[in-house]
Known about the structure:
Layout: E1 6-10, H1 18-32, E2 36-41, E3 53-57, H2 67-88, E4 93-96, H3 99-104, H4 106-112, E5 116-119, H5 136-150, E6 153-156, H6 159-168, H7 170-173, E7 176-178, H8 198-204, H9 210-217, H10 219-230, E8 237-242, H11 252-260, E9 266-271, H12 277-286, E10 293-296, H13 302-307, E11 311-314, H14 323-330, E12 335-338, H15 341-347, E13 353-354, H16 359-371, H17 373-389, H18 394-406
Parallel strand pairs: 1-2, 1-4, 2-3, 4-5, 5-6, 6-7, 8-9, 8-11, 9-10, 11-12, 12-13
Helix pairs in contact: 1-18, 2-4, 11-16, 16-17
Amino acid sequence: MGKQKRVVCIQYRHHPGGVCKRMYLTVQGLLEEDYEVHYLSVDPLRLDEHPRLIRHEIPIPVKARRGIVFWSLFTIVAPLILLGVLLRRRCQALILFSPYYCLVTRLATVLMLVPSIVFVRTIPNRADPVYRSAIVGRIKYYAAWAGLFLASRVVVFTSSVAQSLSARSRLISGRVRLLRVPVTLPKSLEGELPKLTYEQASKSHSEETEALQNWLEGFAARKSSVCRIFDFSERSLVMLVSGELTDRKNAELILRAMNAIESERVVLIISGLGKEAERLKTVAAGFGLGERVVIEGWLPNFADILAGCDLYVLPSKYDGISNSMLEALGAGVPVLAANTPEMREILEYKELLFDAGHVGKLAQRMEAIADSKPEREKVKQLSRYRARQFSFSWGAQLSSFIESNFA
């Protein structure tokens, strides 16, 4: 019997959004590749039980999961728990989803000679609301860059982010690695992605499986269910926007575009929380879009709602690759995204992209998709083609990366 492959991860608690989604997919993928996965957390994460998945609690004796007291204690206790795990279990790598964790765990990884891999969707940007506050924001910003400098490997998901990061620092450039991320299939289709890396999938030109084709044929029933839930007409073009509702996500652009078109067939669901949520409700009401726009919190049945929408829209001004966009592509939902370098790289076709600073052009695009069946079919087929280009196994991709870098 060969040596057990083993990694360890850290995430302080579950949080809706991309970080935890990517962590959960990573854990699931590595378990499928026969890894033993250890993870450290303050609170249990939403991971299914598995004999090779072991949780280690980070005991923090305060109820709050934010603030200077909590993070001070976490910064002291987490590396000690990690050190204990690494003393008992020889791990090939420490896998992290925030540069901050690289900074916190540095002493433990140096003492135990364990390489750290940090996944980043985009480079730290002072324009990001996370880093804007005078003191705390500045600390977070420099902590993020310090973590990137200390990581053994910095994994990014698009070549545009890789180039930007390498251009910012020659010290980091030699440790930056590009890993493509696959689409995320609905739960009923799990296991349908071929056990290939991105490079292998690119050469294989794989077609959609019979199970996926059957899933796509069931769209009408899924849309009907969504329309009943939100009291929309089934003749509507149902759009979905999701994510943390901040200025960066630019959800107001969609509301302004809806206000600029005559067709009332276009309706919108916004799923997420954030500082912009209440203001977006006010904007929608001011435009008279009340019955056509639903602004919810994080939808517990998000995957089911997404699968019944006509169009997933990503209006972010700047962002890394979107997990929800990959879910949409995996579920056969057409995608329309702001024309950023990252989205150009993933979606490629101009028909799937729009200018995030031009309300009028987006309004025309939405109206064309709503009123023209050939236009809807074109967007659908191009989205499905891009989905096939990203149909591969995340577990196989990660396993190949770890073995080639840290065998």
